[in-house]
Amino acid sequence: MTATFSQLPFQNLLHDSVEEAEEQYRKILLQPWNEYEIFQSKIPDNAIEFWAAVQSFQDGTGANPYKCLATYALACLSTPVSNALVERMFSHVNAIKTDKRNRMELIMLESVTRVRTTVMVKGKCCKDFVVTKEMLQRFNSNMYHTAADDETNANPEPIYVG
User: Fold this and answer.
1) Which DSSP string do the residues of the chain spell out, in sequence order?
2) Which residues fall within 8 angstroms of residue 93, CB to CB, at 6 or more apart?
3) Which of 1, 44, 90, 96 is in Cβ range 3.0-4.6 Å of 49 for a Cys bridge?
4) What does each of the 162 residues of the chain score in pLDDT, given as a tens digit?
């Protein structure tokens, strides 16, 4: 049994009219997708790959009759179902910015968070860290923030590791 369009979640993610998306929803099942070159005779099992291909699909006139529906589907697929990731980042930030480190500036906090997250995602440990010659060359008095830096560079670019 096919759900009606009004039963689908995240209706607030529709960029176009509900009527247009609902019409595309009714028509999409009638489309012989395996006949189109965009799928190379095989409809993908992965929902993101399928909807990305539908979003770039063009009919004989060069129009995309399913663009609204595909955009909605991709928005639904990219919407997190919980805020666990955000909560995890707050926990990381709280572990880094302790009472003793309460004067840490945002650029340092971002850098330390990025390094810790990268190390954790890659399954590495701090003992595996390898210091390069370039790092040793940069390790000098120029790496410290001064009041003169504020006047010459109001928005310094962070150095990303990864």
Assistant:
1) -PPPGGGSS-GGG-SS-HHHHHHHHHHHTTS-GGGSGGGTT---SSHHHHHHHHHH---TTS--TTHHHHHHHHHHHHS-SSSHHHHHHHHHHHHHS-GGGTT--HHHHHHHHHHHHHHHHTT--GGG----HHHHHH-SGGGS--HHHHHH-SSPPPPP--
2) 109, 113
3) 44
4) 566 777 777 777 777 778 888 888 888 888 888 777 777 777 888 888 888 888 888 888 888 898 988 888 888 888 777 778 778 888 888 888 888 888 888 888 888 888 888 888 888 887 887 889 998 888 888 777 666 666 665 555 655 554
Rounded to 5°, the CA angle 143-107-127 comes to 70
Calpha distance 4→103 (Å, rounded): 55
Angle between helices 47-56 and 67-78 (to 10 degrees): 150
